[in-house]
């Protein structure tokens, strides 16, 4: 839900900014007003699809329930209960650790893959396809696969590394590691794909002039590639961060939330489906929404500023 | 975030159900056809539930019954039924209800009371399964099939099955060391199966959760701490590596692969190991009642499904007749055992000479009488989650055992009022 509310804001906003050149005034509605009229149906549709559930969940979160039975209005009681529950903070902690470590690793590995795939070499097409395979596998299947690999027996990883009966999934710390590892394996290619798209928009002449000015490989990467890649990097980080904050399937299949791997979404799922309490579940999901939205807004801010710089460069190219 | 998705999905499913309810095929109001919402492999075409439904339909052409196949996983079956019942839909007449859902469903007023046919059912049913169909002293479902845990052991490594858990661990450890394999596998991952395994230790140590009519908490923290301590001490010695991440299938794979001396599992594993030609356990294993801590008798947690009548059914009387028939008809109950290896709930079936040669059914006949139902309280799912959250870290050494059992007791007390 969260990306749908956050990301569409970006093209609309940047689109308005770019198309701001005023035309000669005509009779009737101005072009700007007319544009708003034309855009309104989709805005209304999006509000109904994306905004309504959010508001509905908020209203629901103000009511108290015993399991499925409503027992009355509770105001902020459900929020107080959540914020004083150590399980909530444990899941926040895991979700943040998971997000920071997995997104960092995915970014570094993805950048490496992207730089590699951007080179002209024999078999580049095959490499590009091969790197994308993990991303194509459905998450639940990948999670089950890594469960078998990390499991003590048959324990593929233990036999390859000669670790005997090392219990990856059955102890604190390592359980988190396996979930992060599986996520990095699965989504680093996705980051690579986004960054590769960014790399391909960097014109070759920029590199040529840098080379003429005597910039070495590292200087070219640091002063040319990275700054020009920044918009693509931010988009990739935004997608991954928001996605990682909502992680559910990997820990659910691999550890079922044992050993401190219960994510925020798993906690929400418990109170919505397994032990239904619509009020408390809605409060938890509203809190999740606020967390994801807050972090999303920070990214969109950074992204918006950067797109202006990015478009300046593109303008210079023209 | 999940919740919005699930609500949207629920909305979608409800819409589909609404559409389905309008299609001519399910005009059950007019022609008296009933719908039996039950899941699992036996609900598929050719499965035993299907054949029982056909048998009823032949005998009762005025009120035939057809099966609405629910998903494989119990949690999802419950969700599907909840969607229909929460909306007051009459799409399901008979509900296949897991033994631990009875209280929740009755609390939501989703079920017809079966008090008026109680005597008929109680007279022929095993006491454990019967208890699992009652809540608040009232009968809400008709027992259908049952389930109980067995101790599987390797006959080539163990002479006589142990009668206490401590003895099992001694035998397991020494036999395992000689063979270079693991001792005992069970269901130790953090999920409902762990609660079942833990309760079997706890009950067999003299512990209880509630008193008879479930109005008072009788949770024995000392007994609970003892069994949690027992699990903690045997982790990585008697208990196989990976015990704390194993569910039914992981445990079966270990035992079937010849990597364990003992296994706690449900009866389903028997046929699978027996049919596996390459298994080192094949031909070298047998089943025994689960040990206890006291050394007396055996206690197993009870599984299985009961049939309940939906409160929103338009064919209440016929549906009631059906669930009583399925619970009390000897032919139906025998079919469950002989054709599908599903443990029947009818006591007399186990005396059938046709079943005496079947080791699984013979043992079930012995242990089901002592099997215990998890309290079918409306709060059972919450209790189970709370027990998982406290006892799982405690037995893994990540939390204090005494605090954990105190927390469980406090939570149980909170479910009374």
Quick structural overview:
Chain A is mostly helical and 318 residues long. Chain A contains 14 helices and 2 strands.
CATH architecture of chain A: Orthogonal Bundle
Question: Any idea what the CATH superfamily of the largest domain in chain B is called?
Answer: Periplasmic binding protein-like II
Round the Cα radius of gyration of chain B to an integer and report it.
22 Å
Query: Count the strands of chain A?
Result: 2
Q: Assembly state here? A: heterodimer
What's the CATH topology name of the largest domain in chain B?
A: D-Maltodextrin-Binding Protein, domain 2
The shape of chain A is flat
Alpha-carbon distance between the two ends of chain B: 32 Å
Mean pLDDT over the residues of chain A: 84
How much of the residues of chain B is beta strand, in percent? 5-15%
Order of helices and strands of chain B: HHEHEHEHHHEEEEHEHHHEHEEHHHHHH
Number of separate helices of chain A = 14
Mean pLDDT of chain B: 87
Overall CATH class of chain A: Mainly Alpha
**Most strands sheet of chain A:** 2 strands, antiparallel
User: Strand order across the biggest sheet of chain A?
Assistant: 1-2
Helix content of chain A: over 70%
Structurally, the number of domains of chain B stands at 2
Distance between the termini of chain A: 38 Å
């Amino acid at each position: 839900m969260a990306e749908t509310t956050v990301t569409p804001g970006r093209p609309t906003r940047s689109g308005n900014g770019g198309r701001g050149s005023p035309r000669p005034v005509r009779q009737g509605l101005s072009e700007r007003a007319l544009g708003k009229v034309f855009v309104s149906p989709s805005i209304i549709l999006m509000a109904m699809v994306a905004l309504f559930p959010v508001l509905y969940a908020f209203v629901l979160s103000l009511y108290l329930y015993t399991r499925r039975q409503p027992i009355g209005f509770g105001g902020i009681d459900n929020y107080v209960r959540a914020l004083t529950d150590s399980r909530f903070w444990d899941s926040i902690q895991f979700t943040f650790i998971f997000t920071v470590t997995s997104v960092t690793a995915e970014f570094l590995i993805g950048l490496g893959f992207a730089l590699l795939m951007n080179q002209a070499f024999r078999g580049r097409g095959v490499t590009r396809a091969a790197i994308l395979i993990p991303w194509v596998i459905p998450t639940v299947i990948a999670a089950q696969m890594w469960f078998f690999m990390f499991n003590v027996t048959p324990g593929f990883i233990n036999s390859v590394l000669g670790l005997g009966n090392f219990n990856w999934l059955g102890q604190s710390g390592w359980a988190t590691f396996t979930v992060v590892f599986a996520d990095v394996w699965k989504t680093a290619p996705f980051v690579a794909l986004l960054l590769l798209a960014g790399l391909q928009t960097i014109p070759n002449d920029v590199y040529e002039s840098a080379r003429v000015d005597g910039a070495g490989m590292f200087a070219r990467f640091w002063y040319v590639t990275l700054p020009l890649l920044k918009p693509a990097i931010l988009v990739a980080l935004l997608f991954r961060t928001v996605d990682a904050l909502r992680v559910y399937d990997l820990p659910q299949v691999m550890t079922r939330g044992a050993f401190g791997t219960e994510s925020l979404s798993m906690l929400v799922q418990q109170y919505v489906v397994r032990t239904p309490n619509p009020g408390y579940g809605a409060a938890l999901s509203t809190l999740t929404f606020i967390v994801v939205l807050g972090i999303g807004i920070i990214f969109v801010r950074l992204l918006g500023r950067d797109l202006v710089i990015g478009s300046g460069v593109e303008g210079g190219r023209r | 975030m999940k919740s919005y998705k699930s609500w949207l999905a629920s909305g979608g499913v409800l819409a589909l159900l609404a559409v389905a309810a309008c299609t001519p095929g399910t005009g059950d109001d007019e022609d008296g056809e009933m719908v039996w919402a039950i899941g699992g492999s036996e609900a598929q075409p050719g499965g035993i539930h299907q054949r029982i439904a056909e048998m009823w339909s032949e005998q009762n052409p005025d009120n035939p019954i057809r099966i609405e196949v629910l998903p494989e996983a119990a949690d999802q079956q419950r969700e599907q039924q909840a969607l229909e019942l929460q909306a007051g839909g009459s799409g399901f007449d008979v509900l296949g209800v897991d033994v631990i859902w009875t209280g929740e469903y009755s609390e939501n007023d989703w079920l017809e009371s079966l008090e008026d046919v109680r005597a008929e059912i109680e007279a022929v049913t095993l006491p454990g399964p019967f208890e699992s169909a009652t809540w608040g002293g009232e009968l809400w479902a008709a027992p259908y099939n049952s389930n109980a845990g067995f101790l599987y052991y390797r006959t080539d490594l163990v002479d006589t099955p142990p009668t206490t858990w401590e003895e099992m661990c001694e035998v397991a450890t020494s036999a395992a060391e000689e063979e270079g394999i693991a001792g005992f596998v069970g269901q130790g991952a953090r999920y409902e199966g762990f609660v079942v395994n833990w309760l079997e230790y706890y009950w067999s140590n003299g512990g209880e959760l509630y008193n008879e009519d479930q109005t008072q908490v009788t949770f024995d923290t000392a007994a609970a701490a003892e069994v949690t301590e027992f699990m903690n001490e045997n982790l990585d010695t008697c208990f196989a590596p990976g015990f704390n991440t194993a569910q039914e299938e992981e445990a079966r794979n270990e035992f079937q692969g010849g990597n364990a001396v003992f296994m706690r599992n449900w009866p389903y594993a028997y046929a699978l190991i027996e049919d596996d030609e390459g298994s080192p356990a094949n031909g070298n294993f047998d089943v025994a009642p689960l040990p206890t801590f006291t050394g007396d008798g055996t206690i197993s947690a009870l599984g299985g499904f009961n049939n309940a009548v939906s409160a929103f059914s338009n064919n209440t009387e016929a549906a009631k007749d059906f669930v009583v028939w399925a619970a009390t008809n000897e032919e139906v109950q025998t079919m469950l055992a002989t054709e599908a290896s599903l443990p029947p709930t009818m006591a007399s079936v186990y005396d059938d000479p046709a079943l005496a040669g079947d080791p699984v059914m013979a043992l079930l006949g012995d242990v089901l009488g002592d099997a215990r139902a998890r309290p079918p309280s409306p709060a059972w799912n919450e209790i189970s989650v709370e027990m998982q959250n406290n006892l799982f870290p405690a037995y893994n050494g990540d939390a204090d055992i005494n605090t954990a059992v105190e927390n469980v007791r406090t939570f149980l007390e909170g479910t009374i009022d």
